[in-house]
Write a structure and sequence with these properties.
With about 400 residues, the chain is an all-alpha fold. It contains 14 helices and no strands.
């Protein structure tokens, strides 16, 4: 009688490979597939950056405005009027800050050429003393070398100047797309989210819905806390510049406020600008004092505000913040650094929610309760609450 044929065929290779190597190989090809999928996703995002960046800006702003619109709607304001007030108010605030900064800069730069000449003379005199001991001929030689280097790289500047028109066009297009996306998120954000949830299988809808709500809550907390931290930085550095007699204190404060939304990079860049303005318009002593003020405010932010306020709201380790900001800057420049922390925080919270299994508690407790808290802040059309409950009551 012939022996039964077994389903396992020995090839003389697999049984001779140590179990650790087989396990490492199984992990490796799966990690390679995940890395390839992420690479394709990042490539698509970079190629569609003119669409993705305005959409992300709109989502970040809407995390602040949606609760405000929901508050007005719950107090019997018409939805259209509430959305109009939120949109117009945001535009007025941003335009007012820009106008104030531009006006102050225009008024404060009167006689800038004379100040630059005086600062250059002081600087060259400083270089002529110990420990540099540079003569005027040495300084002129270094300046000529710098000018020659700029001339050699002039093609870069020419191509950049030729691309200004394209950049302005992209900026205007992105601004319009941001306003358009923000408008529809405020008007119909709940319906858009319900449509996204319905794209997933029925058994996964409760998890996706709950994870999205947790991510949205974290994004709103990040936006609020970031505005608070940026305001404290702006007030501290602007007040220091005013007390030291540094001109353009208000534009410095506005610049610090806007730069604080880019973690680490924004603080360093705006601090350098503040010290440079103090050096140009005053003297070395005031510039050093301004540097001390900038370092003091940034140390308070990094060691007090960020751990106590931002760490509680976002729950991302400071080392993680540094790494994701660096990765975002390498991949997408300033926009990447700007959105790195909120994206990492949202992904972290959503992953923790799904892996934690809170969505398995059923429609009567976890998912529905969290969903109800979101619908109270998102303007919705009549009958939408029923559709949101159906999402949470799907089969698990």
């Amino acid at each position: 009688m012939p022996e039964p044929v077994t389903s396992t065929t020995r090839n003389g290779v697999d049984e001779n490979i140590p179990p650790g190597i087989r396990l490492a190989g199984a992990w490796s090809w799966r990690l390679l597939v995940i890395a390839a999928a992420l690479a394709v996703l990042i490539f698509l995002i970079i190629q569609l950056r003119l669409i993705v960046i305005p959409l992300l800006v709109a989502v970040l702003i809407s995390a602040l405005l949606v609760p405000f619109v929901g508050f007005l709607v719950r107090h019997h304001w018409p939805k259209a009027l509430a959305v109009a007030i939120a949109m117009i108010g945001t535009i007025v605030i941003v335009a007012g800050l820009i106008t104030l900064a531009a006006t102050q800069i225009a008024d404060g730069t009167a006689g800038l050429n004379a100040r630059l000449t005086e600062s250059y003379a002081t600087f060259t005199q400083f270089l002529s003393t110990a420990p540099f001991n540079l003569s005027q001929a040495d300084i002129n030689t270094y300046l000529d070398q710098g000018v020659a280097a700029l001339q050699n790289d002039s093609q870069v500047f020419i191509s950049g100047a030729l691309s200004v028109g394209t950049t302005v066009g992209h900026l205007l297009t992105g601004l319009l797309l941001t306003l358009f996306s923000l408008l529809f998120i405020l008007i119909d954000g709940a319906t858009i989210w319900a449509w996204i949830v319905r794209l997933f299988p029925r058994r996964a809808r409760a998890a996706i819905n709950g994870a999205g709500i947790a991510g949205w809550t974290t994004l709103g907390s990040f936006a609020k806390v970031q505005i608070l931290v940026a305001s404290i930085d702006a007030i501290g550095i602007g007040l220091g510049a005013f007390l030291l007699g540094v001109p353009l204190a208000i534009p410095i404060a506005i610049l610090v406020f806007l730069g604080s939304f880019v973690p680490i990079i924004g603080a360093v860049a705006t601090g350098i600008v503040a010290v440079f303005i103090a050096l140009i318009f005053t003297n070395w002593v005031t510039a050093l004092l301004m540097l001390g003020v900038v370092l003091l405010v940034q140390q308070v932010e990094g060691h007090v505000l960020q751990p106590l306020i931002m760490g509680t709201a976002v729950k991302v380790h400071p080392l993680g913040v540094v790494l994701v900001v660096a990765a975002g800057a390498l991949l997408a420049g300033i926009p990447g650094a700007l959105f790195a922390v909120p994206i990492a925080a949202v992904v972290n919270v959503m992953t923790a929610y799904i892996s934690g299994g809170q969505w398995r508690e059923g429609a009567g407790s976890g998912a529905t309760a969290a969903s109800s808290s979101l619908w109270r802040t998102v303007p919705r059309r009549p009958g939408y609450r029923q559709s949101s409950i159906k999402i949470n009551q799907g089969k698990h």
